[in-house]
Write a structure and sequence with these properties.
Layout: H1 9-52, H2 56-72, H3 76-82, E1 90-91, E2 95-96, E3 99-101, H4 114-126, E4 131-139, H5 145-154, H6 157-164, E5 167-175, E6 181-188, H7 193-238, H8 251-295, H9 302-327, E7 336-339, H10 340-353, E8 358-360, E9 367-370, H11 372-390, E10 393-400, E11 403-409, H12 444-454, E12 458-465, E13 471-481
Helix pairs in contact: 1-4, 1-7, 7-8, 8-9, 10-11, 11-12
Subcellular location: Cell inner membrane
Membrane topology: Multi-pass membrane protein
GO molecular function, one term: ATP binding
Length: 483
């Protein structure tokens, strides 16, 4: 799942805010819908209470009186008023008139609602109504024939929608001292689509406003940070102070960029001082070595003269390694697209021309953007170590996904496992001597590692072992990113 998450600060903050807003809106929608449901429930319960509060005897007396008036011809105006709606069925507000019955409202399949019964009982008892029995059930409007007849006779679309889209409450009350039930019905309307639409619209507006403003604010913060990241990578590559970015964004970010610019200037100054110092050391040491090389020619003892020449050459090569290691961080040659197989082949040919048993394995053509002079130097160091300690070397060029691998293998004694990491440090060797013929100065692997890191890669060394665990030599690999 992590692969689908944004990696940038801007994306992660926006995702967190969007998720938090979505959760908050979901909670708000649930609470709002629940409040609406409670309000619809309360309206239905009050409608039942109003209908049941009417005295059945008084209601019957009014009906008898009304019929008498109609027979006497005095109810013409009332008849005209009743013709405006279905006869005897409706009440103002679109409710069914309660009716008297010999039995309660419970039918097969109905389930009583104890909570609603307790609430309705409390409402009626507040009005001083004596209750012998009270029943409340919830029913589907399509399963109630009285509701169906009522809607067929009234016929209004709004009224039909109000009754049919939700549920109905059917309540029955038998008062103390009476054998008849008064049965009333009230609708519980369904959730209005407009309510859900308003919640969705509100959520969209909040997303557009809040996420939009937050995006603008974060862009103002992250744009300078992105520029600072690019500048840091560029400075790590070139060590030059050209192209420093101007402080921008909030005050904290401006202070960070200004401090980074000062740090760059300080590092660049130290690097310049180091180069000047190394140049002076190189000049001051190589000049006396050249003079000594001339003077030893006057030594008559050939053996002594050879030893002295070898010592001078050893010092000269050690000094060259030290200066090269110091210059790795500030290369002067530009990176270029290079065929690594061809580069490895050229290094192998150098050793073959000197009669050294170094071979190049066949492999695919691999190209990368590198500094050829430096990478050739690193590969030479690995091959030289293999030839020096094992007597031979095998070189191969491989591609492992986005990484090019320059591999050097030998069949020598290897390195003790507990000393592998130490061998990459300056002046550390498996052989305690400093003789160039047996081990040199101990800078070869250090320089190779520095060159690999200069290219954004790494140097790996490990012992080769057979299936039974016996040592089979050393494996050294230069890993260079292809892009």
């Amino acid at each position: 799942m992590r692969r689908f998450l944004p990696k940038s600060l801007l994306g992660q903050v926006l995702l967190a805010v969007a998720a938090a807003l979505l959760i908050a809106q979901a909670i708000s929608a649930v609470l709002l819908l629940r409040a609406q449901e409670q309000r619809r429930e309360a309206v239905a319960m009050n409608a039942l209470a109003i209908q049941m509060a009417e005295d059945p005897d008084e209601r019957m007396a009014r009906r008898i009186a009304r019929r008498g008036q109609e027979r006497a011809g005095t109810g013409a105006g009332l008849r005209g008023e009743r013709r405006a709606g279905p006869r005897g069925e409706g009440t103002p507000g679109g409710l069914l008139r309660p009716r008297l019955a010999e039995q309660g409202p419970i039918r097969s399949g109905d389930v009583r609602s104890p909570g609603r019964e307790a609430e309705l009982r409390e409402l009626l008892e507040r009005q001083g109504i004596p209750i012998a029995e009270l029943v409340v059930v919830e029913r589907d409007p399509m399963a109630d024939r009285r509701v169906q007849r009522f809607l067929q006779r009234r016929g209004g679309a709004a009224l039909r929608q109000r009754w049919l889209r939700g549920k109905i409450l059917v309540g029955g009350i038998r008062r103390a001292g009476s054998d008849q039930w008064l049965i009333a019905r009230a609708p519980i309307p369904a959730v209005e689509p407009r309510a859900l639409g308003s919640i969705i619209a509100q959520t969209l507006i909040l997303y557009l406003v809040l996420v939009g403003l937050l995006w603008a604010l974060l862009r103002r913060l992250t744009r300078p940070l992105a520029a600072l990241t690019r500048r840091t990578a560029e400075f790590a590559e070139t060590r030059g102070i050209e192209g420093q970015i101007e402080p921008s964004g909030p005050s904290d970010t401006r202070q960070l960029i200004a401090a980074h610019n000062r740090m760059e200037a300080r590092i660049a100054g130290l690097m310049d001082e180091k180069d000047v110092m190394l140049g002076a050391i190189g000049h001051d040491l190589k000049t006396p070595l050249a003079a000594l090389r001339v003077r030893i020619e006057s030594v008559t003892d050939d053996a002594q003269r050879g030893k002295m020449a070898a010592s001078i050459a050893d010092l000269d090569r050690t000094l060259d390694d030290i200066l090269s290691l110091a210059r790795v961080g500030r290369p002067t040659d530009a990176a270029e697209r290079t065929d690594l197989s061809a580069l490895a082949g050229a290094v192998v040919e150098e050793y073959e021309d000197r009669g050294k048993p170094v071979t190049l394995a066949d492999g695919a053509r691999v190209t990368a953007t590198i500094r050829p002079t430096w990478l050739r130097r690193a590969l030479r160091n690995l091959v030289s170590n293999a030839v020096r300690y094992a007597g031979s070397a095998r070189v191969s060029v491989l591609q492992d996904g986005p990484v090019a691998v320059l591999r050097v293998e030998d069949d020598g004694p290897g390195i003790p496992d507990d000393q592998l990491a130490d061998m990459l440090e300056p002046f550390r060797r498996g052989d305690a001597s400093r003789n160039r013929g047996t081990g040199g100065s101990g800078l070869g692997l250090t320089l190779a590692r520095a060159i690999a890191q200069q290219h954004g890669g790494q140097l790996l060394i490990q012992n080769r072992r057979a299936a039974d665990g016996t040592p089979q030599g050393l494996l050294a690999e230069l890993h260079i990113p292809l892009d």
